[in-house]
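Bit of a strange request maybe. I'm writing a small parser for structure token strings and I need a real example to test against, not something I typed by hand. Could someone generate the tokens for this chain?
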Amino acid sequence: MLAITAGGLFATAAYLLLSRSAVRLVLGLVLLSHAALLSIFIAGGLVRANPPLVPEHALAPPPGAADAVPQALMLTAIVISFGITAFAAVLVQRLVSATGRDESDPPASSDAEDAA
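Reply from user aminoacidic:
Good idea to test on real output. This should exercise your parser:
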């Protein structure tokens, strides 16, 4: 079920990233980051019973302990996605304030402007 959800998030993010609206672009980036986080969560395995703590006398974690690397990757990815989302939101705000539109393409010239 989680893999289907991640695939749906990736597909929706790709659709939103291909649109002309800058707001949809930011929403696509948010969904893409959530899909990446869910993929890391799936790759790390589901919740296990034992915490990833290693006693002082042991050389390796006990069997069945959760892996701490996917957890660290998820925390890093959350911080990176928050920074990218904030930066993209500021860019969209500047685009709308500078042009008055939220489309990324320039307006098409009309035939009256071409004749003049």
